[in-house]
Design a protein that fits this description.
alpha+beta; about 30% helix; single chain; 7-stranded beta/alpha barrel; about 725 residues; twelve-stranded antiparallel β-sheet
Length: about 725
């Protein structure tokens, strides 16, 4: 009996990945795969390249496309469409999803003179509304994991051929990817795949089996280049198939649909592959889920109840990680701003819409086995493109004039309003319900979100780190799937795992207990005696003056645990932003509302990033507030005339340094690579603690430490009599040099 072996490959590199990674991946994976495929013209496959990878190839290796075009012309491959910049389609506004697919389809038609019929879904994330969107852009089929079909109640014997689904009368063919093949190719010997195909054909009397997965398995994943190319796995695999073409056929997916009818109609639930759905669970739930899987495995009944065992949805990442949600809502906010400018067709896409699409690349929005959200440069790339989309749109709308505006909206979609203040130089987004904190601070000329930090959280895999061992694979051995690799990239990672008690934002207000020091503050194990850090502040005023000054005033009446009692204390904080300046001026009023005098230790925390924690081009800077030229420097600072920076001295070598200073009127971070700096200024000298925020996370290459930003704490000791107030004035400014 003959069997149709449907073979699909998806190749992708994310927006923001380093050029060297693109180049190495191309040389070690994408190019040799195609070169070997060329030598085996009877091997026919379906292939997908994401937009970021396409753009890199077009710029750096354009002749590669000639190879693809040649194989299309000789009917050896078909090319799949998809969202151009590899977005999660179900997470986008419909206009953006359709626009991204049109962009990819028209690129393929223009470059290869070929009209694609099928679509690759990023991370195979399915939503029940997708048939409508995909059908509207002319696509006939997509490829999903068998997981989706198990959740619809099917059994393993049903995971062959294809099915048809629909929504509102729009139909779409869906192929289930065989999990055995996904895990065995290229990690098992070629004959094991052929044996499986032979068993499937005879046991289930079927005629179509689907394999489709990441092309990076063929040379980019750890140890795979040696195995796949140097030890000839791919060459041997293709040869083995060619030697068995008397019973194996290799149609493309679109050909298979033309030749065979669907197995039937199916309605699939929201799902992705098994691992993704486990990663999306909250950490504690992830622990319990893993325990349940082990228990069912030990009892030998996991497969029996497979259809009823599932983790979370991809959208759960937006609740698991506040940073993911804020990126996603930034994307929606920018998309809404661009709503009137968008068009369909690659020739009609304006620059701001292309930038928005780039900011929708999925990789930085989630975290699982791959670094994703934990890689600060991927998050930076998302913000960089979203900010640029805003810049282009606002320049058109405001005709390049100085301007300022504010909006009071439910930005993060929690039913509570945030305050968004913008001018041509900065975006400053405040959250009254979370400590009145600043959660996004963009320096727009450099397209840089200075608040792009990450809170340190417990992850379900952290318990594995201390038991993990470094090591590679011996020569000639079969490489492990990255799902099975457990190793650490440096010793002592388990000792630096810290969990934060609150989100790492700026203008966070602290009242410290006497036992606080820089060490326990770093470890988030210090005594907090106030209730201001993450609690609600009330907006008392937000307005704009005739001179173009936005004023935001927030207040909270809270309490301090003081000498076995609770003392009522209020904080009023006012923020000023003007249309000319790239900074925020702030004034705090702290009032003792109790009936006794108190001695307090008050601090204002900032969390900022320049991305590179170990580069000697990024470092802290400070200025001694008692310098005799202080008043002149303060005036120059306010007038933006600080082009001569000789009065600001370097503090430490890199941003990963830990330290403290006292009696400081200026402290900040300097970026010699991008030629700008962030300066905190204090009317009254402050003591400063500074240290890096580092996370320990997993990636395809093992567990690793990642710099996520720097905490700068300004703090003061003060005595407040009954009903006495204390005023603290400070500012944060960004300036270029």
């Amino acid at each position: 009996m003959k069997i149709n072996f449907l073979f699909g490959i998806h190749n992708h590199q994310p927006i923001g990945n380093f050029d060297a990674v693109f180049e190495e991946s191309f040389k070690r994976c994408y190019l040799p795969f195609i070169e070997i495929l060329e030598r085996h013209p009877k091997i026919r496959i379906s292939i997908h390249y994401s937009g970021p990878l396409i753009e890199w190839i077009e710029k750096n290796a354009p002749r590669f496309f000639d190879k693809i075009k040649g194989m299309i012309e000789r009917d050896q491959i078909e090319v799949l469409s998809g969202g151009f910049y590899e977005p999660i389609l179900s997470s986008l506004p419909e206009d953006d999803a359709i626009g991204q697919i049109h962009m990819m389809t028209e690129f393929i038609e223009k470059k290869f003179h070929y009209t694609p019929k099928g679509i690759w879904l990023a991370e195979r994330i399915w939503g029940p509304l997708l048939p409508t969107i995909i059908s509207k852009v002319g696509m006939k089929y997509t490829i999903l994991d068998d997981t989706h079909f198990f959740y619809a109640g099917l059994k393993h014997k049903d995971m062959f051929g294809y099915y048809v689904t629909e929504k509102d009368g729009f139909t779409l063919s869906v192929f289930p990817i065989d999990k055995f093949l996904r895990y065995s190719i290229p990690f098992k010997l070629p004959h094991e795949t052929l044996d499986y195909l032979r068993r499937a054909a005879s046991e289930y009397n079927i005629n179509g089996v689907t394999y489709a997965d990441d092309g990076e398995k063929f040379g980019v994943w750890p140890s795979t280049h040696k195995w796949v190319y140097e030890e000839n796995w791919l060459e041997n695999f293709f040869t083995s198939i060619e030697d068995n073409l008397d019973w194996i056929e290799m149609p493309t997916f679109s050909e298979y649909i033309e030749r065979f009818s669907p197995n039937g109609r199916i309605y699939l639930p929201m799902a992705s592959y098994e691992e993704m759905m486990e990663w999306a669970l909250p950490t504690e739930a992830g622990h319990r889920f893993e325990e349940m899987l082990h228990d069912l495995e030990n009892r030998g009944i996991r497969d029996k109840y497979k259809s009823f065992i599932r983790g979370g949805l991809w959208d759960n990442f937006l609740t698991k990680y506040d940073e993911s949600n804020l990126m996603h809502k930034k994307m929606l906010y920018v998309s809404e701003k661009l709503r009137k400018t968008r068009g369909q067709g690659i020739k009609k896409i304006p620059p701001e819409l292309r930038e928005l699409y780039r900011g929708q690349c999925n990789c930085a929005y989630w975290h699982g086995l791959f670094g994703g959200l934990y890689l600060n440069y991927l998050r930076h790339a998302v913000y960089e493109h979203l900010i640029e989309a805003e810049n282009i749109t606002d320049k058109k709308g405001h005709r390049n004039k100085n301007w300022i505006e504010y909006r009071l909206i439910d930005y993060d979609k929690d039913t509570q309003n945030e305050v968004l203040i913008s001018n041509s130089k900065v975006n400053a987004y405040f959250d009254p319900d979370y400590g009145g904190s600043l959660f996004e601070f963009d320096y727009r000329p450099k397209r840089f979100n200075l608040s792009n930090t990450l809170t340190r959280r417990e992850e379900s895999y952290h318990y594995k780190i201390k038991g993990a061992e470094s090591g590679g694979h011996s020569s000639g051995s079969t490489p492990k799937s990255i799902h099975d690799i457990v190793k650490v990239k440096e010793d002592g990672l388990g000792e630096i795992i810290v969990y934060d008690r609150y989100q790492r934002r700026s203008f966070i207000d602290h009242f410290f207990g006497e036992e606080t020091d820089i060490k326990n503050f770093m470890m988030c194990s210090y005594p907090e005696i106030g209730d201001f850090v993450d609690k609600q502040y009330k907006i008392e005023d937000v307005s704009i003056s005739r001179k173009g000054l936005v004023n935001l005033k927030m207040k909270r009446i809270g309490s301090l645990k003081y000498s076995n009692s609770h003392i009522p204390v209020s904080i009023s904080k006012i923020f000023h932003l003007s249309k000319e300046k790239s900074g925020i001026a702030s004034a705090y009023e702290i009032t003792n509302m109790g009936d006794k005098d108190i001695n307090i230790w008050f601090g204002i925390e900032f969390n900022l990033t320049l991305l590179a924690g170990d580069s000697d081009l990024r470092y802290y800077i400070s200025f001694d507030g008692f310098h005799p030229e202080h008043k002149k420097i303060m005036e120059r600072f306010k007038k933006k005339e600080m082009s001569n920076l000789s009065n600001l001295i370097r503090v430490g070598k890199v941003l990963k340094n830990i330290g403290n200073t006292s009696n400081t009127r200026y402290f900040g971070m300097r970026d010699d690579w991008n030629h700008f700096q962030i300066i905190l200024s204090f009317e009254e000298p402050a003591s400063i603690w500074y240290f890096p925020i580092e996370t320990v996370s997993q990636s395809e290459d093992g567990f690793e430490r990642t710099y996520q930003g720097s905490t700068i704490l300004s703090h003061w000791n003060m005595k407040l009599s009954c009903m006495e107030s204390k005023i603290i004035e400070l500012g944060i400014n960004v300036e270029e040099f």
